[in-house]
Amino acid sequence: MDTIKVIFDTDPGVDDAMALLFLHYAREVELVGITTTFGNGRIDTTTWNALYLTERFGIDAPVASGPATPLVGPAPPPTDFVHGANGLGDVPLPTTLGRKPDPRPAHRFIIDMVRAHPGEITIVAVGRMTNLALALREDPAIAGLVRAIVIMGGAFGHNGFHGNVTPVAEANIHGDPLAADEVFGGTWPITVVGLDVTQRTQMTTDYLEALAKDGGEAGQFIWDITRFYVAFHHAAGVPNMFVHDSSADAARRDPRRDRGPRHRPDDAEAGRIQFPAGRMGRPPLAHRLHRRRPRPAAGALPRHHRVGRRRLEAPLGATVEDAARPDRDLLSSRDRAPRRRPPARRRPSLPTGRASLRCRR
């Protein structure tokens, strides 16, 4: 059986730990690395959890730590009300570990592995996409060297499922929206597994009990860490447990489950995105994507940049700093002075009465 080299980009996390074990026990997977990001815990917590999982279950894969914050702004608070204070359902964890993280930052580790194995690496990303965005910024050419990208994230409103942070935002996108925008704008092949998939994929308590009974040490561990996670779902009125991150790996394992649009590099270069045939020949509403215009250079203003109700027209190459300089006037002429409406033209009134009749004669 041919093996698939996988980098798991994650923020363990109860469901992340389940997905990691899923990958570890998949016979066709060669787990070549784990990169961590903030999200379900702070970066030191998620990295510690990844090291703990690799040490406890004998996972022979290096762990590289990512940044502690998104591309812009501070990190949002961790979702400890979902995953517990330690990220793994508050089960007891050791205070010391024998394993140490890889000295390279996560994005550099991704670049090195993709360069070392061109066309062979599949990246399964189930957290904030900060590491992928940083890798793409530092080495854009890796987009053509990866085998595939599988993302767990997004809320498309399909089948009645909406965001879990806001009505339109899912946590992994909401946690670093700029990184998500840059990753989705790349030319690498991406499969997106959103909440319309993961919230329909559920594990019942009976299933988890059977897993604890018949699944050995890993099955018992999953039962233990999901007690906190299941309690959160029950408190929210959800009878079963959503299976978020493992659904992304299921999409990787069985391509027949992929019913969404395919974004291929050759299609991107041609300015098209191919979709499977939908009803009346149209793709589902949730997957009607539009090709983005080329992104300006870092720090550059777009050609038309709106600030409040004003419209800035910046020459190509203008930067944000230029907009703040008093000697560079970036406002269009229509914005320099209020536009006055011309006075209405009055229609001449026709004369009335006897005098008018005498005038007409």
Helical content, roughly? 25-40%
Biggest sheet statistics: 6 strands, parallel
Strand order of the largest sheet: 3-2-1-4-5-6
The residue-averaged pLDDT reads: 79
Provide a descriptive summary of the structure in words.
The chain is an alpha/beta fold. The protein has two domains: 4-258, Ribonucleoside hydrolase-like (Inosine-uridine Nucleoside N-ribohydrolase, Chain A), CATH 3.90.245.10; 304-336, no CATH class. The chain contains 15 helices and ten strands. α1 (14-25) links the parallel β1 and β2 (29-36). α1 packs parallel to α11 (245-253) and α9 (205-214) runs antiparallel to α10 (216-235).
Q: Could you give a quick summary of the protein structure above?
A:
With 361 residues, this protein is α/β, with parallel strands linked by helices.
Task: Outline the fold blueprint.
Layout: E1 4-10, H1 14-25, E2 29-36, H2 43-56, E3 63-65, H3 80-83, H4 106-116, E4 121-125, H5 130-138, E5 148-152, H6 171-175, H7 177-184, E6 190-193, H8 195-198, E7 202-203, H9 205-214, H10 216-235, E8 241-242, H11 245-253, H12 265-269, E9 304-307, E10 310-313, H13 320-324, H14 333-336, H15 353-360
Parallel strand pairs: 1-2, 1-4, 2-3, 4-5, 5-6
Antiparallel strand pairs: 7-8, 9-10
